[in-house]
Design brief:
The chain is of the alpha/beta class. It has a single domain, classed as LigB-like (Protocatechuate 4,5-dioxygenase, Chain B, 3-Layer(aba) Sandwich), CATH 3.40.830.10. 37% of the residues lie in helices and 23% in strands. Strands 7-2-8-1-10-9 form a 6-stranded mixed β-sheet, with helices on both faces. The structure holds fe (ii) ion. The site of fe (ii) ion has 5 residues, from strand 2.
C-alpha cells in the first residue's frame, strides 16, 4: 500500500450565515443573498479541493468541545438536524454524513499510543457539531467524500495558550502519522474564524450587507498581519505569535484548529492561497488554502 498523505489544508471558517446565504435544500431558513465575498472564496477553494480527488476530509472544530481528551466518531453514518444555538433562525440543517471510521479510529489509536486521552462516539443519535457541518458543506456541498471529525480538547487551553499549542501539535503529528499509515489522500479543514469580537445585535434582515463591517479596527489589523504571514509562507512565525493573536483579537483559533492543521502539514513554508477575507457580524474570516501541488503557481 502506498504511503498516505495530506494533499491540502484549508482554513475554513464556519459562520452559519454563509450556508444561510447559499440556500441549500438541507437548510430550512431561506435568504435573499449575503456574504458573497466569503461564499465566492469558498467556491474557488472548493474547485481546487475537488480537483485533488481526496479520499477523505478531516475536520477539527471548536464547536465539538471536549474537556477530557479528543473524541472521535466510531460509526459509519450520522443523520440529524444541526441547529446553531446562537443563530437558530439562520441555520437548521438536515445532515446525512458518511464517516471514514477506519481513519477515524487510526488517528485515535495513534493518539492513544502517544498517551493522549481519547474517546470514541458509539451513540447513533449523537448530534454532529455545526462548526464541522458548515465548513464541510461549504467545501463539498455534494457530500460525496467521507469525513473524519476530531473534537477540540479545551482543557490545555484553559491552562494557557502555549500548553494548548503543544497539545494541538501532538494531535497534528498523530493525525499525519495515521494518514500516512492509512494510504489515503486527505484534505484537512481547520474550522475557524480569525478575529472573533462580534456585534451582539443583528439587523432586522440578517443579510442586509449595509450593516456588515469589522467590529474593531485593531482586530482587523491583526487579521491582516496573520494573513500576510500566511501569504509569505511564514507559518513557523505565525505559530510563534499565535498566543498573542488569540489574546489580542479574541481569535477563534484559540482551541487549536489552525495549530493542529499547520503542525500536521509539517508547518508549511510556502505561500498559502488566500481565496478571500470578509466579516460576519463583525468577526474576521478568511478562506486560505495550503496546497503543495500549487507551489510556485500563484
Ligand atoms: Fe464558531
Amino acid at each position: 500500500m502506498n504511503k498516505g498523505s495530506i494533499v491540502a489544508g484549508v482554513l475554513a471558517p464556519h459562520p452559519p450565515h454563509l450556508v444561510y446565504g447559499e440556500n441549500p435544500p438541507q437548510n430550512e431558513p431561506k435568504s435573499e443573498c449575503g456574504w458573497e465575498g466569503l461564499r465566492w472564496a469558498y467556491e474557488r477553494c472548493r474547485a481546487n479541493i475537488k480537483a485533488l480527488k481526496p479520499d477523505v476530509l478531516v475536520v477539527h472544530s471548536p464547536h465539538w468541545p471536549t474537556v477530557v481528551g479528543h473524541h472521535f466518531l466510531g460509526l459509519p453514518h450520522f443523520k440529524g438536524l444541526s441547529v446553531d444555538p446562537i443563530f437558530p433562525h439562520l441555520f437548521r440543517y438536515n445532515y446525512d454524513v458518511k464517516v471514514d471510521v477506519d481513519l477515524s479510529l487510526q488517528i485515535r489509536d495513534v493518539c492513544a499510543k502517544a498517551d493522549m486521552h481519547t474517546s470514541v462516539v458509539k451513540n447513533p443519535d449523537f448530534r454532529l457539531d455545526y462548526g464541522s457541518i458548515i465548513c464541510l458543506h461549504l467545501i463539498n456541498p455534494d457530500w460525496d467524500i467521507p469525513v473524519v471529525l476530531i473534537s477540540s480538547n479545551q482543557a490545555a487551553f484553559y491552562f494557557s495558550n502555549e500548553v494548548g499549542a503543544q497539545v494541538a501539535k501532538d494531535l497534528g503529528e498523530a493525525t499525519r502519522q495515521a494518514i500516512e499509515i492509512s494510504g489515503k489522500r486527505a484534505v484537512l479543514l481547520a474550522s475557524s474564524s480569525l478575529s472573533h469580537r462580534h456585534f451582539v445585535h443583528e439587523p432586522d434582515l440578517p443579510e442586509d450587507m449595509s450593516f456588515e463591517r469589522i467590529h474593531h479596527h485593531g482586530q482587523y489589523l491583526w487579521d491582516m498581519k496573520v494573513i500576510d504571514m500566511m501569504k509569505k509562507g511564514q507559518c513557523r512565525e505565525l505559530l510563534d505569535i499565535m498566543p498573542e493573536f488569540i489574546e489580542m483579537a479574541s481569535a477563534e483559533v484559540k482551541v487549536g484548529s489552525l495549530n493542529w492543521m499547520l503542525e500536521a502539514m509539517g508547518v508549511p513554508n510556502y505561500p498559502a492561497v488566500v481565496h478571500g477575507y470578509g466579516t460576519v457580524i463583525g468577526t474576521g474570516n478568511a478562506v486560505v488554502e495550503w496546497n503543495p501541488s500549487l507551489k510556485g503557481k500563484n
